[in-house]
Amino acid sequence: MTVISHISRILIGLLFVFSGYVKAIDPLGFTYKLEEYFQSLHVTFLSPLALIISILIIAAELVMGLCLLARIRMKLVAWCVLLFMLFFTVLTFYIAVKGDVVKDCGCFGDALVLSNTATFLKNLAAMPFVIFIFFWRKNYTHVAKCITEWIIAIAFFAAAVGIELYCLRNLPIIDFMPYKVGINIPESMEFPENAHPDEYKTTYYYSKNGETKDFDDTNYPWNDSTWTYVDSKSELVKKGYEPPIHDFEIQTKDGEDITADIVYSEKFTFIFILRKIEQADISEISKINEIADFCRDADNFDFYAYTASGFDDIEKFIEKTNAKYQFCMGDETTIKTMLRSNQGLMLVKDGNILAKWSYQNIPSTDEIKKLAVTDYETIVADAKAGERRATIILAAIALIFICFINTKKYKV
């Protein structure tokens, strides 16, 4: 029982910490997922609260995981973990059976995408350990006084929310999205020769003498004039390969597709991303205009604005900000995937994504000039090193603290 109690606590603790952390570094991504849930479950009145709910759920999950690993407030945490897992096990069962609620549950953000069925099975496999923790909860001794444990738990919560707010203000510490730094857009759009496309089953409906029958590709009466075509329906039978980037398209206001002009350009191309212009913050627009002016005067730089908003909103924005750069339009879902911020910058050259900035971290022209003379491999290596450094520091702090707490003698 002692061994099982250790294994259960550590396994579920690690599961919650991993699941919470990969969402904490991308809280906006989980917000979008919640909006999908609200839309599919017809509770759209909750959509305005999606970001707040996202932050609280992620923080709660991280706190529960850390408390399990550190043995903090085990009686209360055991209840919370059980209720949390019961709710999401029922929810994932529903979406696995229903099939058309969401594409994936989003429990591991974009770091690890599981099918709805796989997610339900994962929750089902974790439940025995959760149940054991719950029934064993009174056998875990305290590691400190009650007030001290509460202070530690509150500190965990504050740290979790702090990570989320930092990533909201800036960008995710680790970018798991298809448009991360170092990715070549054209290569990510390619369909491999040995890859299998989606498989569909088409049903044809024909009528004769007032009776309608359905046929498939092998027997429909295409050459029998006594049958009258009524309708057809295609159904996805098997999902095939889908390129990481499959919906990237940039059009001018006149409807011209300039995607290839941008992704194959040898120039440094800035894309000023404005998902919803009506929600745009223009407090730092002078920096954007400065970069646009710099690009206009330089031979090897281009500058475009990219938005999912309509013509009227674009015109209002131009009048308000004196924008002198070309506006292009695209799909909102694509823009959400490109940048986890309502607005920010992306730098592309030869189809390679060199850098991304949130609106709060717009680079100066001096930084841009320095970046322009830095080789591609160094830029990508620096970006990946930054991701590793941030994760290692956070993991080391948590591990040292948890190991220190667990040196306390306790009985189970």
Topology:
Elements: H1 2-24, H2 27-40, H3 50-70, H4 74-98, H5 116-135, H6 146-169, H7 185-188, E1 199-208, E2 211-215, E3 228-238, E4 251-252, H8 259-263, E5 268-274, H9 285-297, E6 301-307, H10 311-321, E7 326-329, H11 332-338, E8 343-349, E9 352-358, H12 365-372, H13 376-405
Helix pairs in contact: 1-3, 1-5, 2-3, 3-4, 3-6, 4-5
Q: Give the proportion of residues in helices.
A: 40-55%
Strand order of the largest sheet: 4-7-6-5-8-9
Q: Averaging pLDDT over every residue, what do you get? A: 87
Secondary-structure class: alpha+beta
Outline type: globular
Number of helices: 13
Report the end-to-end length measured between terminal Cα atoms: 8 Å
Low-confidence stretches: none
Rg for CA atoms: 26 Å
Instruction: Write down the secondary-structure element order.
Output: HHHHHHHEEEEHEHEHEHEEHH
Number of domains: 3
Annotation, overall tally of beta strands: 9
**Subunit organisation of the chains:** single chain
How would you characterize the largest beta sheet?
6 strands, mixed
Q: Which percent range describes the beta-strand content?
A: 5-15%
